[in-house]
Amino acid sequence: MMAIDLALVLCASCAGVAFAGGWLFARLAGRRGWVDAPEHRRLHRTPTPRGGGIGIAAVLATVVFAAYAKGGPGVSLAGGLLVTAGAGLVDDIRPLAPAAKLFAQAVGTLPLALAWPLAPQLATPVPGIVAAWLLAIGLVNAWNFMDGSNGLVTLQALLLGACVAAVLPATDAGGAVAWALVAACIGFLPLNFPRARVFLGDVGSHALGFAAALLLLQAAARGGATAALVWLPLSAVLIDAGVTLGGRLRRGCIPWQAHRDHLYQRIIAAGVGHSAVALAFASWTLVVVGLAVALAAGGADPSLAWAVAGGVYGVGVVTRLAAGYRWPITEPPESKA
């Protein structure tokens, strides 16, 4: 009972810090002019402070340090998260060149790759480190690209954390990070959903992407069915980001140029509300989270878990492509790479 009470206090504290950090930074950002002004490629209609995810970043950095400090890479992981989120914070305050932001992401995510390289059974760890590094950078950017609608990526991160907390052992350090992720997202959501008083900002989306990479890479290192199941709650973000990026590269667009090609952007631009879109994406993720938890509880064989994950992604890609015909791109042509 005491352990449960302590866990509840810690989760409430994480939620409180995320809320207070976002609220205080929104006031500062409003006074300093760190706001997103409406323009033709944005989906909001009023100037809104950005950078509210600074409280989430603070919570995650603290919990990551505490969870992995004893005999683990707590300092390097927490430092990497701060570097990654810090690059986002700089960009929220004053636009950062894409190359500089990518460099900071590469530096910040390197501790993740060193801690949990993919395929560690290889004779040399270098390919596994490089693969894990690219995956971590990709997840940070996927969360950043998908952060353009009230509550969308915060709800996705909340469900990811809930899924990982359910499938990992209670004593696992990743479980502590997962619960902190859930609590921090719950704390921030009232500031951003259904009405946005402050935007998550790159500081928040980078922190959430870093946490997603940490949970995925640690699950991969554990092996078994868990390595496959953790991919399921990432599917909504990765499918829309991946299909959109593939389409833009095929058309010769500059990948980092601002656009409204994501499915969620097209749907909102067509007149559907932010809340409806965020809840639709969350509904998909809630279903696959339930599937992941059921498979974990039933002791699913790893081969079955990977088959299910592959099936979910296959259905998701087909659904995304079909929805793209229903809500086509309506923006004028962009400059080409």
TrEMBL record:
Compartments (UniProt record): Cell membrane
Record-level GO BP terms: cell wall macromolecule biosynthetic process; cell wall organization; lipopolysaccharide biosynthetic process
Pfam families: Glycos_transf_4 (PF00953)
Main location as per UniProt: membrane
UniProt-recorded Gene Ontology molecular function terms: metal ion binding; phosphotransferase activity, for other substituted phosphate groups
UniProt-annotated binding residues for Mg(2+): 144, 202
Needed co-factor(s): Mg(2+)
Membrane topology term: Multi-pass membrane protein
Any one Gene Ontology cellular component term annotated for this protein: plasma membrane
Residue ranges of the TM segments: 6-30, 51-68, 125-145, 152-170, 176-193, 200-221, 227-246, 267-297, 303-323
Keywords assigned by UniProt, alphabetized: Cell membrane, Magnesium, Membrane, Metal-binding, Transferase, Transmembrane, Transmembrane helix
Keyword Chaperone found: no
Family matches, as InterPro entries: Glycosyl_transferase_4 (IPR000715)
Protein name, per record: Uncharacterized protein
Lineage, uppermost ranks: Bacteria, Pseudomonadati, Pseudomonadota, Gammaproteobacteria, Lysobacterales
